[in-house]
Amino acid sequence: xxxxxxxxxxxxxxxxxxxxxxxxxxxxxxxxxxxxxxxxxxxxxxxxxxxxxxxxxxxxxxxxxxxxxxxxxxxxxxxxxxxxxxxxxxxxxxxxxxxxxxxx
Amino acid sequence: xxxxxxxxxxxxxxxxxxxxxxxxxxxxxxxxxxxxxxxxxxxxxxxxxxxxxxxxxxxxxxxxxxxxxxxxxxxxxxxxxxxxxxxxxxxxxxxxxxxxxxxxxxxxxxxxxxxxxxxxxxxxxxxxxxxxxxxxxxxxxxxxxxxxxxxxxxxxxxxxxxxxxxxxxxxxxxxxxxxxxxxxxxxxxxxxxxxxxxxxxxxxxxxxxxx
Lengths: 104, 211
Description:
The structure holds 2 protein chains of 2 kinds. Chain A is an alpha+beta fold.
């Protein structure tokens, strides 16, 4: 999936609803399986798979693949690079809120 | 929020920033529902143990309680801990729309079952020896529980290894200490370690917009 150029400082990899959900959920929970992420975000398998692939390509998310008897089980975690990117992304949002009239 | 396959939008407006921060919080809170269950079960087990230890200390001070009371209190605490673990496991499976008896549950049960069965056998054998045998049980239980957690950590949560090691250390210390201190070791081990783990897990999982 092509990631379009967004305004400087806003990370285009994270600035998408599903990917933002993945990164936020992993920042909170530490590690989640594919089925956990699907339930948290309420998206289809295909949609989640596409966005996880983008996050993996960007090395924001690392997958550990294993097997549960006959079923594959993949667990996802944020990489240090992904965690830093998420922190920067939140900083940008907070900066926008602070600089707005009446912002904190 | 921007579509990423389209040309990039303009700068983020304060309204969009506020909505995005709110969305982040929702995602984090929802994710916590999937990760906080072992911590909640730990809180229940820890609080039940502290209450049990408190009741025994209040009634008997630092002494080995009578066998009947010892068995009733710690049997009840074990029952509450096991029941809470089952209930939280079922709730988590329902949230995930997953089978209750799934692979992670099977791994934890498989790791804890051998030391649990050993604990049952040792409890019967030592309990039959009266106060001298009963005085050894807190140390034995802590050692076996710690060994089980350590084993479970190899295939589930890595945090269990540190808790298992701490429980084993407390069990060894309990066995090397005078028997009347057993209730204190039970409170520190099964109570304190569970509550400490829950506090650390809750701090790690606390919903926040900060990474």
